[in-house]
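User: Hello, can you help with two protein structures?

Assistant: Certainly.
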Amino acid sequence: MLLSASGETSEVLKEILFVLTGAISAILGGFLATWYETKKARKIRREEVIGEKQVEAYQQAARVASSLQSLLMQGTLEDAAKYVNEQGDWFWKNRLFLPQGFQNKWISLKSNLRRAIRMEKAQANQEDEDKRGKQIDTLGELQSFLDQLAEEAEKEILGELGLSPIEIEKFSQRKQEASRS
């Protein structure tokens, strides 16, 4: 009788142990499932926030690049440099959300604008006409390079958005096309 009571007690303890193990496993599983879902939800939310900020940064970058192109065509080098400097805070705040290609073009524009302004001042003070002519030629090439950089910066952003730049038709192009036909 002692053995049978001891055997029954042992069986009951085994059953209790199995129930406790199952309960602990269920609690742990529930905790891990909740933790995983929370982690996944945070990641999704973080990606949504980054996506929203990225779209805002891209929109502003497209406007900035377009405005800079206009300034380079219609304004002075000083105007363009001032504009780039005014946009400095915006650029550094949004740098994490901008494509690397745009960042490279922006920094290159800033650097080459400073160089062009120095070169413009130097050629204005140059008395030797041959040297001055060469400086003017180099400045013209640098101006074309700046125009190209600004255009490429805009294309970089628009490409990321799946858009293409607006192409402005010019009268002289239309006239040449019409004469070929």
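That covers the first. Now for the second protein you mentioned:
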Amino acid sequence: MIEFEKSDIETLDFIIDRCLKTGFAVTANDLVKFGYIKLVNEKGYGTFTPEFDATKEFVRFLHILDKYKVCECSFRDDSEFARLNSKTLHFQRQGGFKALYMNKINENEKVQKKNELEIKNLELQKENLEYLKSIRDKEDQIRNLTRDNLRLENWDIRFRWYIAVGGFIIGFITKYLLTID
């Protein structure tokens, strides 16, 4: 698919405008005549590349116009041209290729912003998972410490019972021995 660049906007909008104003087809000669396709450089020499052909450049513009279906385009060897169709006027009223380019830029910015937000969201989710893991680890530690603490408390209670029972027995025996004499 042929995409257009920012530098193509003026030429593409000229072709649409010319089709609408004249009602006739636009050819490569029209673009050369109005300076949209240059056959010489600033110094008056031939084009920068010897294989340059105004028709090839014009056909590239035709492919762009055809892709967006804003002009009827002919690609025959004997005559390449663009002429208006039912969508040409509506497309121009919507802002033409300049507006389309701005929409694409805005769309690309939105996609880029969306991608940045998705990455930020993934980072935050990762942080959240790490935080939840640390909470689970702390809860496990608390559970283990609570279990160990309960074991110690149970042992302490048993030990006190043993002392109490032992003390009672020793007291009973001592009283018995003291009363025998």
